[in-house]
Amino acid sequence: MLSLIQDLDKADIAILKILQEQGRVSNVDLAEHIHLSPPATLARLKRLEKQGLISRFTAVLDRHKTGHDTLCYIQLTLALHQHQQIRDVLESIIEMPEVLECHNVTGEYDYLLKVVLRNTQALESFISEKLIPMPGIAKIHTSLVLKEYKSSTALDLES
After folding, report:
1. pLDDT digits (tens, 9 = 90+) for 34-66
2. Are residue 13 and residue 77 in the same domain, yes or no?
3. Is 131 helix (H, G, I), strand (E, B) or coil?
4. Using alpha carbons only, how large is the chain's radius of gyration in Å?
5. 109 occurs within a structural domain
6. pTM for the complete prediction?
7. Which residues are 140's β-sheet partners?
């Protein structure tokens, strides 16, 4: 995939940085931060969205305040690496609301899932009722997060 970051000027990068930290900033405040007029700022914002640099705007919820106290990473190994089996497993995983992220990775395992649940009982149910019965999964390894020291969605645009 071609990187568009080299085509951005300082104002574009400033817009992206501010939006990563303050997604609800008004256009007027954003314009003030980057020292451009609101119409010029809005035009840049629309261009960044059209280019796909901004994929979506969303609210990041505090998982603890919503009662989701269990964060874990689950590594999966598939039994076979046939295209249809891979598609079937991935379609099932993508539909699971507990799975926040699913990545195809190198190493001992094939997939890494970031999963959030209400508690360890829900984790046990998730594994035993959703993952274990799924055809095609040969190995499941779960790592429970004890404490988060950093959680961010902001990308480093300077390096």
Report:
1. 999 999 999 999 999 999 999 999 999 999 999
2. no
3. helix
4. 20
5. yes
6. 0.88
7. 76
